[in-house]
Here is the input.
Amino acid sequence: MEQLIQLDHQLFFAINNGLSNPFFDWLMPFLRNRFFWAPLYLFWIIFFTRNYGRKGFVLVVFLLVTFAITDMLSSGMIKPAIHRLRPCNDVTLKHDVNSIVACGSGFSFPSSHAANHFAIALFLITVFRRKWKWIMALGLGWAFSISLAQVYVGVHFPLDVIAGAVLGCMIGYVTGTIFLTLQTGKQWHPGS
Here is the structure.
């Protein structure tokens, strides 16, 4: 376990310090800011309800439930049980951390940003992968960029975002599969 933590710290500093540059210093705080993505979330609500009617409304409800389950598990249950300090709050590391944003007082493991965004991405991939072939690359790239930003700005270790991504992927896949099953008894084909 000690070797894994040491590797996690090395990878953290490779990203947090090693990738440091003025462009990322500007970009990464935006990527991890929930308000930056608010127009996208509003677009989804309007797009799904206008294009898919009642099924679109149910889809939006499932997205919200997916987010709620993921956030409850990551922030409400796992973080308080693990008690891992954020890199920017760890007294043995914080002086070497390139802190780009306010550190926050919460715990670090798992990353709720990573869990929530990977859950949303996997839900959408599960539901729309047959209609939109590009959704897997776009969804995973979107969630990955937000997760990388968490490490870059100094608020999470790489293992935090990996664990969050795995948790989110599992929840998103399960809720997406349940949504599809409830829509038709087998699978829902958007646009059919």
Observations:
- Residues 86 and 108 are 5 Å apart (CA to CA).
- The chain has six helices and no strands.
- The first helix runs from residue 2 to 16.
- The chain has a mean pLDDT of 91.
